[in-house]
Every structure is written in structure tokens, then in C-alpha cells.
Amino acid sequence: MAVDPNTIDPKKTLADEEVAARLAAELPKWKLVDGWIRRTYRTSSWKGTLMVINTVGHLAEAAWHHPDLTASYAWVEVRLMSHDAKGITERDLQLAKKIEDVVGWQPGIEPESALEGTPRSDLRFAYIKYD
Ligand SMILES: C[C@H](O)[C@H](O)[C@H]1CNC2=NC(N)=NC(=O)C2=N1
């Protein structure tokens, strides 16, 4: 039977140069370092850090693809690779994109948004440090 060239193979690893090019085009804040695609989200406090971790946790569980996380008081690093394929696959890129979309969501700066977004005027509400 012929292989459909349009089907994504979840276990196919991408060459480093291809990963780097895809990140530059699609996920410019993510970098390939030591075999992982990674991104650090900075926050204003431990509570914000845990909110990011929980958000990533939900997305990973829904995807059934799980990043490694390293956290401190005001940052969390998200690191993705496909352990079973021993490399970077489309699964890593797709989950990274979802994380980037959801954690980076700022409805307050979107045109036509009915949502005001996290208030910036009051430090009590300081949360993710958008970069
Ligand atoms: C049994 C289960 O399907 C596997 O352990 C899945 C779950 N999450 C995973 N996450 C990641 N990052 N790589 C994997 O190979 C992987 N495998």
C-alpha cells in the first residue's frame, strides 16, 4: 500500500537544521539546545509560576505528550523532546505551539477583544512577564 505523503508520522525525528528553521519561522521564542526545544516563561511571582506550570500540565495531559519542567520563584523552563523517538518530532512542535498560544494569550491587546486582559496598572495583579 502506498504511503500517504501528507500523513504526519509522530515518530519521525527532524534534523537539527530543520528544527532550527521551523522554530525561527513558527516559534521564534523557542530554541533548540542540547536536543530539546525549550522556552523560559518569566513571571512576577511563585503564584504566576505555578499557574503557568498548571496550564502546561493540562495541555500535556490533553495531548498525551509531556515536557520536562524546571522552575524557580519567578520563571519556568519548558523543555520538549520525544523520548520514544529520541529526538524532536512534530509532536514537540505542535505542543510547543499550543503552549505558546495559551500561555502567551493576551486578549487585552487583541483588536475587537471583549476581554480586558490582566491589568497592568496594579502590581497586585502582576502575573506573566510577556516578552
Ligand atoms: C506511555 C506513553 O504513551 C508514553 O510514555 C508517552 C507519553 N508522553 C511522552 N512525552 C514525551 N515528551 N515523549 C514521549 O515519548 C512520551 N511518551
From TrEMBL:
Biological process (GO), any one: tetrahydrobiopterin biosynthetic process
Top-level lineage group: Bacteria
A Pfam match: Pterin_4a
Reactions listed under catalytic activity: (4aS,6R)-4a-hydroxy-L-erythro-5,6,7,8-tetrahydrobiopterin = (6R)-L-erythro-6,7-dihydrobiopterin + H2O
Gene Ontology MF term list: 4-alpha-hydroxytetrahydrobiopterin dehydratase activity
Protein name as it appears in the record: 4a-hydroxytetrahydrobiopterin dehydratase
EC identifiers of the protein: 4.2.1.96
Family: Belongs to the pterin-4-alpha-carbinolamine dehydratase family.
